[in-house]
Structure formats: C-alpha cells, structure tokens
C-alpha cells in the first residue's frame, strides 16, 4: 500500500514493489522469474511443484501443466494423471481421451478386461 518511488513491476495491471511480489511459500522475489498464481497466491515454479500441484497417480510426479512436458491432465474419481501416464495396467496402451474400464481399482483399455 506504500507508494512506489523507484523500480517496481506490474502484474495484471497492478503495481508492486519488487520486494513485495514474492512467492507465498519460500518468500523469494518473483520479478523476472517464472511463477504461477493460485487463488490470489503467487508461487515460484519449485514451490508450486512441491506444495500446490497435484501428484500424478501414475508416475507420482507433480502435474505442472505449462511448466514441463505435456499440458493435458486426466481426472477420474479423486485421482489425476499426466495424459501420457494414463495407460492400461495390462498392455500399457495410452488411454487419454479413449474408452477405459476400471476393475478392482486398476485402469484398463476396453479390450484387456476381456482377457483377465
């Protein structure tokens, strides 16, 4: 709320002191760095991956659409996957945007449950 007399930056048409535009978790300054905003909180890439991002049910790594490989996410029930990790348990066929079957808590392509 104090006047900006020198330096500073603008984010979404709002002025900020450089020292006030910081990561909500680690408090590092974000000016000139990659960051993301979640519910009016700002996070550096590292803190977003560690503290905020959902973890993929397949590879267990953070799902960081826009910060790394792939931008699509598959959500089913209470779990999320990178699109490239959402695969049939038996044949490993990619299932993003395809029909699948859930059997005993595992995901299968439409063909594999017939062979169980």
UniProtKB/TrEMBL annotation:
It holds the Pfam family LIM. GO terms for biological process: muscle organ development. It comes from the Eukaryota. InterPro entries: Fhl1, Znf_LIM. GO terms for molecular function: transmembrane transporter binding; zinc ion binding. Keywords: LIM domain, Metal-binding, Repeat, Zinc, Zinc-finger. Residues 54-116 form the LIM zinc-binding domain. This is FHL1 protein.
């Amino acid at each position: 709320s104090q006047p900006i007399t020198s330096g500073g930056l603008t984010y979404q048409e709002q002025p900020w002191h450089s020292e006030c535009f910081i990561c909500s978790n680690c408090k590092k300054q974000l000016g000139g760095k990659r960051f993301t905003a979640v519910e009016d909180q700002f996070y550096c890439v590292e803190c977003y991956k560690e503290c905020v991002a959902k973890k993929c049910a397949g590879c267990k790594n953070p799902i960081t659409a826009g910060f790394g490989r792939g931008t699509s996410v598959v959500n089913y029930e209470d779990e999320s996957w990178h699109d490239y990790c959402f695969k049939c348990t038996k044949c490993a066929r990619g299932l993003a945007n395809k029909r699948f079957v859930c059997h005993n808590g595992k995901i299968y392509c439409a063909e594999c449950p017939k062979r169980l």
